[in-house]
Amino acid sequence: MVEHRSGSPDHGPGGGTEAERPGVAGSDPDARWLALLMHAAFFLLLGASLTRFLMRHPGEARTPWIIALSVTLAVLYLLGPVLGSRPTPRRLAWLAVLVVVWMVLVVLAPSFAWCAVPLFYTGLRILPPRAALALVALLTVFVVAAQLRLADGFDPNLFLAPPAVAAVATAVFVHMQRQAVRQRELAARQRELIDDLLRTRRELAATERREGTLAERQRLSMEIHDTLAQGLSSQQMLLQAADRTWSADPDAARRHVRTATGIAERNLAEARRFVHDLAPADLAEGGGLEAALHALAARESAQAEGALTVHCHVEGTPHAPLPDRVQSALLRIAQGALANVREHSGASAAGLTLTHLDDRVVLDIGDNGRGFTAEPEGVRGGRTVRGHGLPAMRARVRQLGGTLTIESAPGEGTVLSAEVPLTTTEDPT
């Protein structure tokens, strides 16, 4: 009949029942409005079916039963959202009673078959797939039988249309359900990816903090070795010399003590500079690297009291002021190299040469001491002295992207050369 085809769109109450599913559309405002619309459509279809029956069959003996069953079906349908959408025993019993009441109504009044589509969606939403399809097939049989009873004769359209509507409604619902499942899975994967990203960022931040801490410890160890440790070593040597000559040559002993006092003053300035900003004290006094190297050479010569003479020479003019890190590193290398000369080489003369080139700066420290057999970088000999000076120098130069070379041979003195490029990005490590 025309009324059936126009009153049972496959997208009707199914949208409402789908919206009731937990986790599918419960948080979607559009889905909630659609659910209300589909519930209203069910009651309109039920009311239209009852009205049609009362208009065409007034005063029949079955009329009270039809009215009572219609009210019962409406009340049962209203109880559906209250019971939830999970396939609990109480929910399944409710569905069974709802279907049975509808079937009785269809047997007594075939026009109530119009309400089948909402029951399709209710069954598909609650039951397992096979059971839901079996229920849809059963309801479709009842709809076909009802339409054929209402027709004056056999109508192929009435025989084929209800199964087609049921198939479309089922396909739409299954598609919506699968889309909802995919969306939930996608949301879960996105949450997992976000959690993994946050965890990775935390681990990366922790790793960077650890690496920064280790790098800072290494830097501080080099700073302390090149300044305080060397100064304390010199003081120890001077005080030991003063103790040995105190009785025989008091004047020489006093000179040693005064020299040790001067070294202590320099160490105190370095220690205060560590506390302030860890910059070399010679650089902090102004004048740049050249002035600091001249001051270092003069101080080493004075402390040696004639045993070692240190000269400083600067070649070229820098096109721009050297970066602070470069100045600090080269000054520390010069301090460390002269400390090795003073303590281990037995040299009488040493020289500092700072050369400014277009794209790099080179610091050479040479002496006329006893020399040694130079080993390639990364190779440890069987005997080491102190063990930290040369590795610290190499680390400083490597951090600046430069190279450190040593030329020496027994009896021929030593030349240490630190070359630092001025156009290469500094190594952050």
UniProtKB/TrEMBL annotation:
<keyword id="KW-0411">Iron-sulfur</keyword>
<feature type="transmembrane region" description="Helical">
    <location>
        <begin position="31"/>
        <end position="51"/>
    </location>
</feature>
<dbReference type="InterPro" id="IPR050482">
    <property type="entry name" value="Sensor_HK_TwoCompSys"/>
</dbReference>
<comment type="function">
    <text>Member of the two-component regulatory system NreB/NreC involved in the control of dissimilatory nitrate/nitrite reduction in response to oxygen. NreB functions as a direct oxygen sensor histidine kinase which is autophosphorylated, in the absence of oxygen, probably at the conserved histidine residue, and transfers its phosphate group probably to a conserved aspartate residue of NreC. NreB/NreC activates the expression of the nitrate (narGHJI) and nitrite (nir) reductase operons, as well as the putative nitrate transporter gene narT.</text>
</comment>
<feature type="transmembrane region" description="Helical">
    <location>
        <begin position="63"/>
        <end position="80"/>
    </location>
</feature>
<keyword id="KW-0812">Transmembrane</keyword>
<feature type="region of interest" description="Disordered">
    <location>
        <begin position="1"/>
        <end position="25"/>
    </location>
</feature>
<protein>
    <recommendedName>
        <fullName>Oxygen sensor histidine kinase NreB</fullName>
        <ecNumber>2.7.13.3</ecNumber>
    </recommendedName>
</protein>
<dbReference type="InterPro" id="IPR003594">
    <property type="entry name" value="HATPase_dom"/>
</dbReference>
<feature type="domain" description="Histidine kinase">
    <location>
        <begin position="330"/>
        <end position="424"/>
    </location>
</feature>
<dbReference type="InterPro" id="IPR004358">
    <property type="entry name" value="Sig_transdc_His_kin-like_C"/>
</dbReference>
<dbReference type="GO" id="GO:0016301">
    <property type="term" value="F:kinase activity"/>
</dbReference>
<keyword id="KW-1133">Transmembrane helix</keyword>
<keyword id="KW-0408">Iron</keyword>
<keyword id="KW-0479">Metal-binding</keyword>
<keyword id="KW-0472">Membrane</keyword>
<feature type="transmembrane region" description="Helical">
    <location>
        <begin position="92"/>
        <end position="120"/>
    </location>
</feature>
<keyword id="KW-0902">Two-component regulatory system</keyword>
<keyword id="KW-0004">4Fe-4S</keyword>
<dbReference type="InterPro" id="IPR011712">
    <property type="entry name" value="Sig_transdc_His_kin_sub3_dim/P"/>
</dbReference>
<dbReference type="InterPro" id="IPR017205">
    <property type="entry name" value="Sig_transdc_His_kinase_ChrS"/>
</dbReference>
<feature type="transmembrane region" description="Helical">
    <location>
        <begin position="132"/>
        <end position="151"/>
    </location>
</feature>
<dbReference type="Pfam" id="PF02518">
    <property type="entry name" value="HATPase_c"/>
</dbReference>
<dbReference type="InterPro" id="IPR005467">
    <property type="entry name" value="His_kinase_dom"/>
</dbReference>
<keyword id="KW-0808">Transferase</keyword>
<keyword id="KW-0418">Kinase</keyword>
<dbReference type="Pfam" id="PF07730">
    <property type="entry name" value="HisKA_3"/>
</dbReference>
<keyword id="KW-0963">Cytoplasm</keyword>
<dbReference type="InterPro" id="IPR036890">
    <property type="entry name" value="HATPase_C_sf"/>
</dbReference>
<feature type="transmembrane region" description="Helical">
    <location>
        <begin position="157"/>
        <end position="176"/>
    </location>
</feature>
